[in-house]
Amino acid sequence: VVGPHHPKHLELFVWFPFTSLIMVQRAILLFPTLACIAAAFTGQPLVSRSPSASYSLSMGGAQGYATSLEGKKNTVTKVQSLLDSSQMVFTIPAGSITVAQTQALRRSMPSGTTVQIVKNKLMARAVEGTDYAVATSLLQGANAWFFIEEDIGGTLKAYNAFLKNFGKRESHPILGGVIEGNTYDAAGVEAIGKLPSKQDLYAKIAGSIKAVPTKVARVIKAPNSKLARAIKLATDEVHK
After folding, report:
1. Beta-strand (E) ranges in the chain?
2. b/e for 15-44, b at 16 or more Cβ within 10 A?
3. Which sign does the torsion angle of CA 164, 166, 171, 172 carry?
4. Cα 57–60–62 angle (5° rounding)?
5. What is the pTM of this model?
6. Mind listing the pLDDT tens digit of every residue in the chain (240 residues)?
7. Closest to 76 in 3D by CA, of 91, 61, 66
8. How many CB atoms lie under 10 A from the CB of residue 71?
């Protein structure tokens, strides 16, 4: 009879716990491998991530209506409408301008001037077949366009004030402009802005026309004028 203190009983008592410990350790080491195998068969990842969420935030909603085919067509139509009503357009770099600065720039423009950021491909489609087709030579990089109906001088004055107030004279110069089918560099655009507007010319012409009868009457009534003497002599000859 084997008693509780028999050597064989002690051997079994020591061997079983030690064997169980080794089996537990092996199971722990094999668990990651078994988990990966299971994931490969089921197609379920161990850790779920959604990088697309942060990407869409950084892109600022790049998959919106404006990038769809219908949105692009709508943009081209709007730009064509602006071109039809514009006397002149000019462009500047569109980068490194905050939303607040863009709003301030648009608010500073005179009535009839629109500031719009247009992608180069869409601008090229909009100017095709128009007097502004030569503007394709200015389509480099990201551009913001000024569509000016009447007040060219006022628009340039407001833009120069914007450059001074926000310290962007070096980074955002005028790249070029188009008027009556001709392309002008920055100096040419500035020179055109200093010319009288059509409204100013019309006002001067109208003023000159109104002044003509008054000036003629003054000349005729002037007692010592040659025209007055000639008219008097002619009148006397008719009455003889």
Report:
1. 88-93, 113-117, 143-148, 176-179, 182-184
2. eeeeeeeeeeeeeeeeeeeeeeeeeeeeee
3. negative
4. 110
5. 0.59
6. 445 555 544 444 444 454 455 554 555 555 555 555 554 544 444 333 333 333 222 223 345 777 788 889 999 999 999 999 999 999 999 999 999 999 999 999 999 999 999 999 999 999 999 999 999 999 999 999 999 999 999 999 999 999 999 999 999 999 999 999 999 999 999 999 998 766 666 676 777 676 666 665 565 565 566 656 666 666 666 566
7. 66
8. 13
| Amino acid (one-letter) located at 126 | A
3 state SS of 182: strand
Are the CB atoms for 91 and 143 separated by under 8 Å? yes
Distances in whole angstroms, Cα of residue 81 to Cα of each of 75, 77, 84, 126, 127: 10, 6, 5, 9, 11
